[in-house]
Amino acid sequence: EMKPIPLTLIVAATPSHAIGRSSALPWRLPKEMAYFARVTKGEQPEQDGLNAVIMGRKSWEGIPERWRPLQGRINVVVSRQDTFDLGDAPHSHLASSLPSAVSLLSSIPSTPISPTPPKLNRTFLIGGAQLYSHGLTIPHPSYTADRILLTRLKTDFSDCDAFLPPVPSATKGEWKQASHKELCEWVGWEVPEGDRTEKDRTGGGDVVYEFQMWTRES
Ligand code: FOL
């Protein structure tokens, strides 16, 4: 019996749980994106290894090419197309399902560039809708989605086509919102508390959001 590896979902969602439009984010919020990058890279004082991000194929395609793979993190892309082309991105891997992505991470192969496999620190599920839904609803012995870093946007966006599934409460324990202090302790640095206002750089207006953490007992 193997101990399930903890997965942290990280997501920004509107009041109607919208997360995406045409494989991309409906908004451009540089400070919110900087939070995503800083949290997923990780800066725990004791951190030795690399964090990993697992994402679906459409999410990979939605990341601007110049940012792919997400630097300083092991990237795993989930696609049913076994020939899907990731390019020659370093630290990037293709898996056919979420369980395969997790199992791949537990045995990262060494490459000519990194003759020793990097030590794996935290693993984040970064979307999109299909993968969040799998992570939250389908139990598997190899992993447990026990934490959500939710950026709760207080503004809605039109024409979205991807939504966060309603967080299940009946199965596998209740989700509880952690305190701001617990969020800071978990990420290892001082996260801004309460409502933040940032201008949407796609040309929209001001967007108000809050950084939250939710956890459940596995
Ligand atoms: N979670 C949160 N809180 N916000 C998000 O925007 C978000 N986005 C995704 C998943 N979870 C999220 C998936 N979409 C990039 C682009 C799209 C994307 C995720 C990441 C991206 O370009 N990231 C770079 C940019 C860093 C920067 O601009 O500062 C990175 O290095 O992470």
Summed up:
The chain is an alpha/beta fold and 218 residues long.
Could you characterize the architecture of this molecule?
The structure is a single chain. With about 220 residues, the protein is an alpha/beta fold. The chain has one domain (about 5-215): Dihydrofolate Reductase, subunit A. About 20% of the residues lie in helices and about 30% in strands. It has 5 helices and 11 strands, in the order E-E-H-E-H-E-E-H-E-H-E-E-E-H-E-E. The strands form 2 sheets. Strands 1, 3, 4, 5, 6, 7, 9, 10 and 11 form a 9-stranded mixed β-sheet that branches. The protein is globular and about 45 Å long. The structure holds folic acid. The site of folic acid has 19 residues, from strand 1, helix 1 and helix 2.
